[in-house]
TrEMBL record, chains A, B, C:
Top-level taxon of the source organism: Bacteria
Name of the protein described by the UniProt record: DUF47 family protein
Pfam families assigned: PhoU_div (PF01865)
InterPro entries: PhoU-like_sf, Put_Phosphate_transp_reg, UPF0111_domain
Organism for this UniProt entry: Pseudonocardia charpentierae
Family, as annotated: Belongs to the UPF0111 family.
Length: 211, 211, 211
């Protein structure tokens, strides 16, 4: 990043870091939720919801700062896009937790645990990358990592969908309503994985401009 | 908004107002449709379709004007985004009406009436706000109102999904095909509510820039 | 397009043409896939997948070129949007082929063949239009054609959905899991048709700016 004569507002970086750390918290609570018995899910879903509300606060702080800061560290529009992309990740994680409870799902297929585990790793990678935004340093390994996690998530997602909708011969007949509900949770988790990729792509496009 | 030396084209404002008023007409016809017997729905769906075609006309007029106007009242891209966002609202309303008829749905759950009622209020708020775009006046209460309506819509949507997919104990067993069809209508109405919020967010971002 | 003093990089045009020709290949293989017996689908899905990977290569080449080219023939952001829109078409075509195989679907409804046939025509129109981007010539007939194909696709899609979810009286009772799987393929094909329209709209917006 070029040397700048105008010292610009650095307060955005800690906010992005806070947003990503908060996503990591939500992903960890979701992991506990999908590993626990249906009876224990309510409390954990409430914690995911708390994280989502904390995230909304951070997003709001970023938006206010965009409109009240004279010199932003990078384009206002890019700040807006990055904040929105982080917000989308959190929304998808919260929606997945909410749906599992709302639909009173019983035992979940193992693949859902695997999906969430990938989300946890993507969240950790994102939380580690955000503080490096300020120096635009070592961001490439972050993109590569998130893109590779997204491929991993895709494979799990695809297998889950196949097992759900075209169960192997000899498997017990599926209850269609359960298929429908499980499919929606699986798709929401895939959205979260895609949303992490959007965050990484947004960071990449900012880094390219600022290079 | 700063004083401008170049008198710019004011013809955009009436077009946005017309677009929003037309959405209000479509929402009102949809409200009649969901309150009536299946036999009477066809005629009302045709009126929603008429409103959609009228809306396409307005969108087209705006697009032509963007390309033929030298000085626009705000960024061309913002005009384009606002026109598209209004168009998306109307598309979702028309799609919901179309699906109810196409799927030959019988009696609809009460929650659908509640969803449409929120859409009517969002449409009225939007139609009232559009003429204020010119002076960028009193737009904040409009955003707050639409955002609060969106939260209301979310709650209704969430309860509807829960009742559909995880009916309370003792409820008669659901016909899965009916669940599937109803779910699609419910989701399309939720898209319409989200689309109203996108309109409000677009107006907000324009107001912030022009402030 | 105005005369330019700075000779700019022309290498983007052949890349867009290659992307569109590759989409045409994928659409043709998909047409064979939906016309063949379930047993023969695997090989054809693999060919669609190959085309998708070839497309990813082209997209990557365009993205690298955006970042390494000093003077681009039109806005970097527009190049990015056009490349992404072409990529979205290919993704939807590949997803449809993949789902048909993954879900082990049996005989497909005729409407699916009709959907794919429209996609083939849209692909051919797009492949013919791309080389004309350089001179911004005769692009209007391309937009009109793609928009009219999109309307055709919409009608087929709507009838298919109606037949699937509200089968005519006297039709044999539907297997809901098959309905669910078929519906997803039908929707993915509709996404491909919409994605062609987005490509055409992107080209239109570029042409308007450069005019």
């Amino acid at each position: 990043m070029a040397f700048r004569l105008t010292p610009h507002e650095r307060g955005f970086y800690p906010l992005f870091t806070r947003a990503a750390e908060n996503i990591a918290v939500a992903a960890d609570e979701l992991a506990k939720l999908v590993a626990t018995d249906p009876a224990g899910r309510h409390t954990l879903a409430a914690r995911v919801k708390e994280a989502e509300l904390a995230g909304d606060e951070v997003t709001h702080e970023i938006m206010v700062k965009i409109n009240t800061t004279f010199v932003t560290p990078f384009d206002r529009e890019d700040i807006y896009r990055l904040a929105s992309a982080l917000d989308d990740v959190l929304d998808a994680i919260e929606e997945a937790a909410d749906r599992i409870v709302l639909y009173r799902l019983g035992t979940l297929p193992d693949g859902i645990g695997a999906q969430v585990e990938v989300l946890q790793r993507a969240a950790a990678a994102t939380a580690e990358a955000m503080p490096r935004l300020e120096k635009m340093a070592e961001l490439q390994e972050y993109w590569i990592q998130v893109n590779s996690l997204e491929n991993e998530a895709d494979d799990i997602y695809r297998t889950l969908l196949g097992d759900l909708l075209a169960p192997p011969e000899g498997a017990p007949p599926a209850d269609v309503l359960t298929v429908l509900k499980t499919k929606e949770v699986v798709e929401t988790l895939e959205e979260a994985a895609d949303a992490f990729e959007t965050v990484a792509n947004t960071v990449e496009s900012i880094a390219v401009k600022e290079a």
